Amino acid sequence: MKLVNRIITFVLVVALLFTGMGTTVEKVLNDVKLGLDLQGGFEVLYEVESLVDGQEVTEKVLADTTTALNGRINEFGVSEPSIQVEGKDRIRVQLAGLDDQSSARELLSSTANLTFRDVNDNILLDGTDLKEGGANASFDQQNQPIVSLTLKDASKFAEVTKKVLAMGPPNNLLVVWLDFEEGVDSYAAEVKKAPKDQKFKSAASVSQVLNTTDVMISGNFTVEETKNLASILNAGSLPVKLTEIYSTSVGAQFGEDALNDTVFAGIVGVLLIFVFMLLYYRLPGFISIITLTIFTYLVLIVFNGINAVLTLPGIAAIVLGIGMAVDANILTAERVREELRVGHTVKEAFKLGSKQSLSAIIDAQLTTLLAAAVLFYFGTSSVKGFATTLIISILLSFVTAVWGSRLLLGLLVNSGYFNNPAWFGISKSKQHHIDEGITSLDLSTKFDKLDFVGNRKKFYALSTIILVIGIGILAVFKLNLGIDFSSGTRVEIKANNEISQQEVVDYLDKIGFPNSDVVISGEEKDTAVMRYKDDFSQQEVLDFKAQVIEEFGHEPSLSTVSATVGKELALNAIYALTLAAIGIIIYVAVRFEWRMGLGAIISLLHDVFFMVAIFSVLRLEVDITFIAAVLTIVGYSINDTIVTFDRIRENIDRKETITTKEELANIVNKSLRQTLGRSVNTVLTVIVVVVALVFLGAPSIQNFSIALLIGLVTGMYSSICIAAQVWYTLKAREMDKKGTSVVKKEKKQWGSDEPTV
Questions:
Q1: Which DSSP symbol is given to 429?
Q2: How far is CA 280 from CA 428, 623, 677, in A?
Q3: Nearest Cα to Cα of residue 319 among 303, 299, 337, 334
């Protein structure tokens, strides 16, 4: 019976969804908060130290410091700053979309410890005597820039001026200091220097007692300097000393180029996925295009809802999330196609395929979610953003690619208008009759000639050779550690036209930042990249930027990491990988059995080591995003492995009892052949996106994309040729040793949440 009302319902639901998205998508895109790597800006990690001996850096001190920093940023006019306390003594500040980064850095790091002293450096007044918001940029009677101050107590200022007046000329001076260092600074030493080099702000002579709250700070100021000084004083003195231990700044041009390149690469990759799904899976592929579009829209909605900041790795995570959503669609479609080949009707095949694929989908996505959670906990800055996006993507992919796809496909299937298996890419010649009693275990595949179990020793030998060669390569070449792990400064300079390596080398020598290790990149050869072993001081960063902007017309991008932070990032990366591996093996052991968990971990270690070895050979830079790539591949590889193990378990359940190793080998081979098509299709769809990111995406995520590409290929290989073979070897040994059979094992069911239409 054909039910046209199902078709009408489908059309209305899809029309309603796309109308809603179409009318709001512009606002959603405009509301997306871009990270500094996509719009320019800078990020600084400060280590907080007490200014007073014996004073501890407590939570209250950190809170007061963040308040003072926030006040300074507000004075500077920056919108939506991010100031976060990290650990016990660190504060991370992120200011995206900021044009005048140099002034902002100077504004933030200055402690602004205001003091009024006599010529003998005795303190007379300090910042606590200043009225809140009492500093203003102004002009004196000669129209010279000054800073006017409003004090709290006029009588106290009268006492101070009386004391200074009594000292007589030429010592009747009231000296204004910022950040006076006891035992280091002195008026006597500074007054001998040229006016532009003097550390004190002004030294005004006192000719009479002043019973007033109005004070002027005059000197050789520019208008901009008086504005910044007034902002610093109004923001209040910081209760601590802030030392930069990590910083990164991205010029606006770099951010704009990175955004355009990566979005374009993502669109190209996703469109290619859509074409493949439509041509290969037909009707389910058409449904997947609809739900994947909804998925992308919902990711942005949720992202805006939690006020998250979208970074370059975040865009990559969205694109990879689409790949995971595709995987769920492919898994269901493949199971439906199997049931159609067995001889079931389209309605029966849809119902059975949806139910049988649910367990593998949930298991696979939960393990990837585990890897993303570990990355979020240990990640910093943009990596944490990547993990956040990946977590959102995994959760929403279940809502859209699992529940949503089944709802929409169910409407079409149950309408009765799509009863021909050709709608699912299955020809009549490949479909058996249900009376033949054929099961999915009996179906032929394109890979029936492949004997995976019989060649397991060859796989072991190949992997062992790779392991030995990899160890040798690492021993000789070691890893090309980026500044994230080795400390130092990384610089990118962008020019308006093509530049040569020698031209940049000569220029760096000329400005006092010599470096012969310069790499020219970019399609138009207009970008120079270099690394310095030492981390730049704040003043060096400011000086370097000023000179490069003057010469090339674009603000350079700089990342500076101290040795302390580099070591911590490396340790955190090891902790993250260790915890992810432990969590995965526990989960797989509980859901399946410990031998499968062990096989999964061995294959994961194989993948990770292979990625590390390739990066060593190619001398690709290993930075913090490489860890994000490793953990992503951990998720994808375990995804493949779990789907394979789920099929092995299902086929064992069909046999109920396996008494010989030959039977067990046949089950493993059959399971691998049945899931190989799905594995290849899933990996190919994600590889399409990753290749687009490699060749069309921003240079800053190129190594990240290359790591993903390597991991995807090795992950598919290891889940088939390593993980399953390790399980077979362990299981066969158990059968030999104990003389036992492999029997059907009751498993916990996730239940069936398929929508009923």
A1: G
A2: 16, 38, 12
A3: 299
Closest CA to 624 of 477, 474, 487: 487
Contact 693, 265 (CB under 8 A): yes
What percentage of the chain exceeds 70 in pLDDT?
A: 87
Amino acid (one-letter) located at 566: G
For position 76, what pLDDT does the model report?
55
Q: Which residue has the tokens 């002195």?
A: 186
Enumerate residues 6+ apart whose C-beta is below 8 A from 746. none
pLDDT of residue 756: 38
Assess contact for 546 and 102: CB atoms under 8 A.
Answer: yes
**CB 68 within 8 Å of CB 42:** no
Residue 576 contacts by C-beta under 8 Å, 6 or more apart in sequence? Answer: 374, 375, 377, 378, 379, 627, 631
Of 612, 680, 687, nearest in space to 640 by CA: 680
- The single-letter code of the amino acid at 285 is G
Q: What is the dihedral of CA 281, 286, 290, 291, to 10 degrees?
A: -30
Residue 170: cis peptide before it, omega within 30 degrees of 0: yes
H helices, E strands: number in the chain: 23, 21
CB 339 within 8 A of CB 284: no
First to last CA, the chain: 15
**Beta strand residue intervals within 261-414, DSSP E:** 309-310
Mean pLDDT of 407-428: 90
- Beta strands 480-481 and 621-622 are parallel
Phi, psi (deg, nearest 5) at residue 77: 85, 25
| Phi/psi of residue 254, nearest 5 degrees | -60, -45
Residue 339 in 3-state DSSP? helix
Closest CA to 368 of 337, 323, 435, 410: 323
Separation CA 275–CA 231 (nearest Å): 56
Q: Read off the DSSP letter of residue 432.
A: P
The pLDDT tens digits of the residues spanning 334-373 come to 889 989 999 999 999 999 989 888 877 887 778 778 777 8
Q: Which two tokens stand for residue 4?
A: 């046209």
Hey, is 745 helix, strand or coil? coil
H or E element, residue 506: helix 501-510
Return d(Cα 479, Cα 616) in angstroms, integer: 5
Distances (CA, A) of 436 to 308, 442, 568: 56, 11, 63
3-state class of 210 per DSSP? Answer: coil
CA pair distance 383, 381, nearest whole angstrom: 6
pLDDT tens-digit readout, 149-181: 788 888 888 998 899 899 988 888 888 887 787
Burial class (CB in 10 A: 0-12, 13-18, 19+), 126: middle
| DSSP secondary structure, 69-129, as one string | HHHHHHHHT-SS-EEEEETTTEEEEEEET-S-HHHHHHHHH----EEEE-TT--EEEEGGG
**Is residue 142 helix, strand or coil?**
coil
Cα–Cα dist 497/516, whole Å: 21
Instruction: Please name every residue paired with 151 in a beta bridge, in sequence order, or none if there are none.
Output: 130
CA distances, 625 to each of 256, 397, 621, 731 (Å): 20, 23, 10, 38
Report residue 84: phi and psi, to 5°.
Answer: -130, 140
216 DSSP assignment: E
Q: Which of 147, 34, 46 is nearest to 93 (CA)?
A: 46
- Cα distances from 726 to residues 456, 459, 596, 675, in angstroms, run 9, 10, 8, 17
**CA–CA distance, 540 with 466 (Å, rounded to integer):** 45
pLDDT at 753: 43
CB atoms within 10 A of CB 169: 9
Global confidence as pTM: 0.70
d(CA 594, CA 580): 16
What's the CA dihedral at 577, 580, 582, 586 to 10 degrees?
-160
